[in-house]
Amino acid sequence: MKNLTAFLVALALAACSTSTPPRTTKGYERVLDTWYGASELELVSSWGEPRSVYEVDSSSRLLTFLNWGCETRFTIKDGTVVNWSFRGTECKAEESE
């Protein structure tokens, strides 16, 4: 019984010391930064079908994704992600160090 109590106390302390990194817009920006240089196919394979696609010109497109109060747009130039933007209160991700 004494060992069980010690184990439970240690488990409780370990749970308290493990914290989840905060979800912030800066964390979301870091996630989006990883997409620079990716192909449009890789992006759509990961994010799913875009909500809308706007043809800017013969070599550029804007792909818009909407998810839980966050609208994210990727600029695709010659099949490659060259820029991104977002808006919404839920555009957040865990900050990694």
Describe this structure in words.
With 97 residues, the protein is of the alpha+beta class. It has one domain (22-94): Beta-lactamase Inhibitory Protein, Chain:B, domain 1, CATH 3.30.1450. The chain has 3 helices and 6 strands; from the N terminus they run αβααβββββ. Strands 2-3-4-5 form a 4-stranded antiparallel β-sheet, covered by helices on one side. A hairpin with a 2-residue loop joins strand 4 (70-77) and strand 5 (80-87). It is elongated. The termini are far apart. The mean pLDDT is 86.
Record the SSE blueprint.
Blueprint: H1 2-17, E1 23-24, H2 25-33, H3 40-47, E2 52-57, E3 60-67, E4 70-77, E5 80-87, E6 93-94
If strands are numbered along the chain, what order do they take across the biggest sheet? 2-3-4-5
| CATH class category label | Alpha Beta
Which fold does the CATH topology refer to?
Beta-lactamase Inhibitory Protein, Chain:B, domain 1
Total separate domains: 1
Q: Let me know the number of strands.
A: 6
Structure summarized in a few sentences:
By secondary structure, the protein is an alpha+beta fold.
Features:
4-stranded antiparallel sheet; Beta-lactamase Inhibitory Protein, Chain:B, domain 1; two-stranded antiparallel ribbon; alpha+beta; 35% strand; 97 residues
